Amino acid sequence: MKKVLFTVLALGASCTALAQSSVTVYGVADAGLVVDKNAAGDRLTRVASGVASGSRLGFKGKEDLGGGLAATFVLESGFNIDTGTSGQGGRLFGRQAYVGLTGNAGAITLGRQYSPYYLALRDVADPFAIGLAGTASNVMATTGYRVDNMVQYATPSWNKLSGELAYGFGEVADDNKKNRSLGGAVHYVDGPLNLTLTHHRKENQLATADTRNSLLAMRYDFGVAQANLGYADNRAENNSKSNDMLLGVTVPFGATKLIASYIRHNDKSNLNRDAQQWAIGGYYALSKRTDLYTAYGHISNKNGAAFVVGNATDDGTGNTGFNLGMRHTF
C-alpha cells in the first residue's frame, strides 16, 4: 500500500512540475520559385528558401517561478530548405537565441534578438511582413535586423501603452561606444489600431559615426480590410539623409488573402537618388498550417539609385521579381 501511495504522489508531483514548465518545438518550412529580372531583361530563375517566411526550427520554453515571475528562453535556427544548409552564415541559432525573465513588472531578455525597429517595420507597417518580392526591406532600411549581445526591457501594457528599450553591447575592450546599438519603441494599441513609434541607432566599429533610423508605423484593421502606413526618417554614417513612405493594404476573403503596397524613397542628398516600389501578392490557405503564395514586385530607380528586388542585377533604372511557392508551419 505504501508503494502504491508513493507512486501516486510521485506521479502527481511530476504532473505538477510539467504544468509549471513547458517547452515547445516549432518551425517553418518555406520554399518557392523566384524569378528576378532587371530592366535590360537579364533574368535569374531559382528555387529559394524562406521566400514568404524564413525557414526555421525553434525551441521555446517557460518555467513558472512563482509570484507571477517566469523564466523564458528562445533558441531558433534558420536553414535553407533548397540546399539543406544552415542560414545566417552557418550559426547554430542564428535567427534568435535569448533567455529572460518575465513578470508583472515587464520582461527582460538577453542574447541575440530582433530590434524593436525591425519588429515595428515587419509586424505593423509592412503587409508583406518583410517577405516575398514586395518586402519593404528592398527599399527601406532594416538596420538592427538582429542584434547580438542585446539586453532588452519590455514594459507591461498600461492604459493601452507599452514599450521596449534595447541596448546591444559592442564588446570592444577600449570603448563601449564602438559597434554598439541602441533602440526602443512605444506602442499604442486600442482594438483594431496599432500605432508604433520606434528608433534605432548603430555606432560604427570606430565610434566615429552612426546610422540612425526612426519609424512611425500604423496598422488598422477595418474587418473587411487592413490598412498599413509607415514613415521612416534615415541618416547614414556619411550624414546623408533620406525618408521613406509606405502605404499598404491586406484584404482577406475566405481562404484567400490579397496584399499590396507602395513605397516611395526620397533621397535628400544632391544626387536625388529616389526610388519607388509597387508590389502585389496573395496567399491561399490549404489548411491552418499550410498555404500557397505568389507575389510580384517592381522597383523604379532614378539617378543611379541601386535598389533591387531579390537578386536582380541593378542597371540603374528598374527591376522586377516574381514568387510562387508553399509554406508550412508546425
Structure overview:
This protein is mostly beta strands. The protein has a single domain (29-329), classed as Porin (Beta Barrel), CATH 2.40.160. 9% of the residues lie in helices and 57% in strands. The chain is built from two helices and 18 strands. The protein has helices at 2-20, 116-125; strands spanning 21-38, 43-49, 56-66, 69-80, 85-86, 96-103, 106-114, 146-154, 161-168, 181-190, 193-203, 210-221, 226-235, 241-253, 256-267, 275-285, 290-301, 318-329. Strands 1-3-4-6-7-8-9-10-11-12-13-14-15-16-17-18 form a 16-stranded antiparallel β-barrel. A hairpin with a 2-residue loop joins strand 6 (96-103) and strand 7. The longest helix is centred in the first third of the chain and has 19 residues, at 2-20. Mean pLDDT is 93; it is low at 1-19. Homotrimer. It is a multi-pass membrane protein. Residues 1-19 form the signal peptide. Residues 7-303 form the Porin domain. It holds the Pfam family Porin_4.
Short description:
The protein has helices spanning 2-20, 116-125; strands at 21-38, 43-49, 56-66, 69-80, 85-86, 96-103, 106-114, 146-154, 161-168, 181-190, 193-203, 210-221, 226-235, 241-253, 256-267, 275-285, 290-301, 318-329. The chain is mostly beta strands. The protein has one domain (29-329): Porin, CATH 2.40.160.10.
